[in-house]
Amino acid sequence: MAKYSTFVKIPKERIGVLIGPKGSVKETIEKRLKVKLDVDSRTGDVEIILDEKADDPSLIFRAKEVVLAIGRGFSPENAFRLLEDEDKMLEIIDLREVFGRSQSDIRRVKGRIIGKDGKTRRIIEEMSGAVVSVYGHTASIIGDLDEVEIARDAIRLLIKGSSHRTVYKFLYRKRQELKRRKLELWETPG
């Protein structure tokens, strides 16, 4: 069998989180996804190598998502949500694509997404069901398709300058729609 590998670069200050206490996080990723992580702590480069005994080549992509999630500021516990359910996904919004290199605009929008004492981020998480990390020049989301879509739309409203009140109303409306859809799935025809 051919050797499958991929590379990902994460911020150097996140290497310790990726490795974890006594290597526990790195070990968990390697065991659960049948990969080997070769971490260069000087550069932040991580090579992900699929184990030859792995029966599913797609595990390498899931491992890359978990490593990226940790690199984008998620705790290992939140990053491991990607392993619990194959419907979970990671979405990364690069604020540089919106604001270019304007650090002041990026800082301002990060503050709007997080909110005072983390209130806005907490409300986005509670109403969408997703988890959100604001780190460096990115805002990242982990959840299923519906959860990510709701959180992404709320973050985009904040980026465009919508008031927090407008965003909270949007989130409440989307939460109600999601609940209604889930209920309709359980209703039996008849």
Report a brief summary of the structure:
The chain is α+β, with helices and mostly antiparallel strands. Helix content is 54%, strand content 18%. A three-stranded antiparallel β-sheet has the order 1-3-2. It has a three-stranded antiparallel β-sheet with strand order 4-6-5, with helices on both faces.
Question: How many independent structural domains?
Answer: 2
Helix content: 40-55%
How far apart are the first and last residues' alpha carbons, in Å?
A: 53 Å
Proportion of residues in β-strands: 15-25%
> Any idea what the shape is?
globular
CATH topology of the largest domain: Ribosomal Protein S8, Chain: A, domain 1
Structural class by helix and strand composition: alpha+beta
Q: How would you characterize the largest beta sheet?
A: 3 strands, antiparallel
Q: What is the CATH class designation of the largest domain?
A: Alpha Beta
CATH H-level superfamily title of the largest domain: K Homology domain, type 1
The main sheet orders its strands as 1-3-2
**CATH architecture grouping of the largest domain:** 2-Layer Sandwich
- Elements, N to C (H/E): EHHEEHHHEHHHEEHH
Segments where pLDDT lies below 50 for 5+ residues? none
Total helical segments: 10
